[in-house]
Amino acid sequence: MYKINVDSSKKLVSLVADGMFTLDEAKDCLKEYESKLKMINVNEYVFLVDARKQSTSTPEVGEVLTLALNKYLETPFKKRYYVKLDSVIAMSQLKRLGGTEFINKFQIVDTPEEVINSL
What CA dihedral angle connects 101, 105, 111 and 112, to 10 degrees? Predict the structure, then answer.
């Protein structure tokens, strides 16, 4: 399950991911992400990913998630935040898929409220 929200008053794009993605869900999420960003000037927005409850993924889904992570990194957001995952294994998978660039471009936070309350 996923949800992408654009809050124009706070200049926040938030993505919430939960559970284990199917291949179709991963593809749909990426398409919706691209579609919603066409409506805004991303340079003015903060990007917040909350995937605390996301599970580890199959290799096929991992490939799509790698594409998504690359899109998140390429998009010129004002700032990027990622809520630390509950699963240590899923967090390791995320860091492996995103690599050094992910670690350098995303600030890891404990809760989404840390970001939301600062805007």
Answer: -120
